[in-house]
UniProtKB/TrEMBL annotation:
The keyword Cytoplasm does not apply. GO terms for molecular function: transaminase activity. The keyword Kinase does not apply. This is DegT/DnrJ/EryC1/StrS family aminotransferase. Its EC number is 2.6.1.-. It is an enzyme of class 2 (transferase). Belongs to the DegT/DnrJ/EryC1 family.
Length: 369
């Protein structure tokens, strides 16, 4: 169908701006392996995100996976099933065991009041997700981590540019991992970053993203190849110049959605967190069929019939994936199960026209009876 509206659309600079950014690479022939664009983006991001240290990687997934490897963890990691496959897979691919904590029904992030009873003598870390850009209960997570000497690795894939109580969101936990995928508020085509406090950990990560090589004749670790290349870094440099403007436009889209859908019986909109400077990353809506009169499936299908691609982020829960068949008990995360069966994320990107938002809302409201 023509004029389809998808759940998101990548932000891109003007072509000329990108061409200018990559032109020097034709003189230098330096395309990857921590070149000048990589360095510049790293510096610019440190400042923009308000973090002390950052390292750039190929994507958000490798940021999570190599962070866990660099920390040399063993045992169980308390995490959330209400997330993208990446979070859980990063844990499992490191030989660690995910232990699923249920989520808060308002923020959809890990319910911090349920963490302590999941801690065993095998627990080594907590990996919460600031899902949809909603910020986790940072204080409580910090308190628990301190009490039980656990590492905290935030999956901050959705929170680019956010701050909590005036502090860059990447500065919380031992580590915070960002995604710069094409679908994110800020993209470098593919890309990711790890913000960290411990410089030794940073040095280890730097080696792990480059095959574990320490020097030309020294390879102390089994690493991967997760270096951000210069074309991606150049895209990041361009997009970073416009990201504030993009977030402002997203805000206008979100405000229009809220105006139209607020206070409609049977619809739960995303929470507003007072201490958070939001990036308006996603617009999740939970449909309670009993009160709304239409199920999530009916709304999804009606939107699709009209060329509108909403998505069921995050359904299915990761603890129900077939690759984990029989390993986890989904009844232990009932709130996550409830939300995942009812949530739809609506189209949201900077250039989404407000008339299109109105059309989407008309279709959604037309399903109500
Ligand atoms: N942790 C969390 C909590 C995450 O959500 C993610 C990724 C990660 C970790 C891992 O980070 P990365 O390794 O990806 O950096 C998308 C994204 O691929 C993924 O990055 C994202 N989360 C996830 C929530 O969404 P899909 O499979 O839904 O993407 P796809 O291809 O269906 O694209 C969605 C829409 O975006 C399309 O309908 C149109 C638009 N789009 C897509 C692409 C690829 C564009 O406008 N341009 C594009 O280039 O996973």
């Amino acid at each position: 169908m023509e004029n389809k509206i998808l759940v998101t659309r990548s932000s891109m600079p003007e072509l000329d701006e990108y061409m200018n950014e990559i032109t020097p690479m034709w003189d230098s022939h330096w395309l990857t392996n921590m070149g000048p664009k990589h360095k510049k983006l790293q510096d610019n991001l440190c400042e923009y995100l308000g973090v002390e240290n950052i390292d750039l990687l190929t994507n958000g997934h490798m940021a999570l996976e190599l962070t866990l490897q660099a920390m040399n963890l063993q045992g169980e990691v308390i995490t959330t099933p209400f997330t993208f496959a990446s979070t859980t897979h990063a844990i499992v691919r490191n030989g660690l065991t995910p232990v699923f904590c249920d989520i808060d029904p308002e923020t959809y992030c890990m319910d911090a009041s349920k963490i302590e009873k999941l801690i065993t003598d095998r627990t080594c870390a907590i990996m919460p997700v600031h899902v949809y850009g909603n910020v986790c209960n940072i204080e409580e997570i910090e308190r628990i981590a301190h009490k039980y000497e656990l590492k905290v690795i935030y999956d901050a894939a959705h929170t680019f540019g956010e701050s909590y109580k005036g502090k860059g969101i990447g500065s919380f936990g031992d580590v915070s991992c960002f995604s710069f995928h094409a679908t994110k508020v800020f993209n470098s085509i593919e890309g990711g970053a790890v913000c960290f406090k411990d410089k030794q950990l940073g040095a280890k990560l730097y080696e792990l993203k480059n095959f574990g090589i320490h020097g030309p004749e020294e390879v102390p670790a089994v690493g991967a190849n997760a270096k951000m290349n210069e074309f991606c870094a150049a895209m990041g440099l361009c997009n970073l110049r416009h990201v504030d403007e993009e977030i402002a436009k997203r805000k206008a889209v979100v405000e229009r959605y809220r105006e139209r859908l607020e206070d409609v019986e049977g619809i739960q909109l995303n929470c507003i967190q007072n201490d958070v400077k939001s990036n308006y990353a996603y617009f999740p809506v939970v449909f309670e069929e009993r009160l709304y009169g239409a199920s999530r499936a009916e709304v999804f299908d009606k939107l699709a019939e009209n060329g509108i691609g909403a998505r069921k982020y995050f359904y299915p829960l990761t603890n129900t994936f077939e690759c984990f068949h029989g390993k986890y008990d989904v009844t232990e995360t009932p709130v996550a199960l409830h939300i995942s069966k009812r949530v739809l994320t609506l189209p949201l990107y900077a250039d989404l026209a407000l008339e299109d938002v109105d059309r989407i809302c008309d279709i959604i409201l037309g399903c109500k009876y």
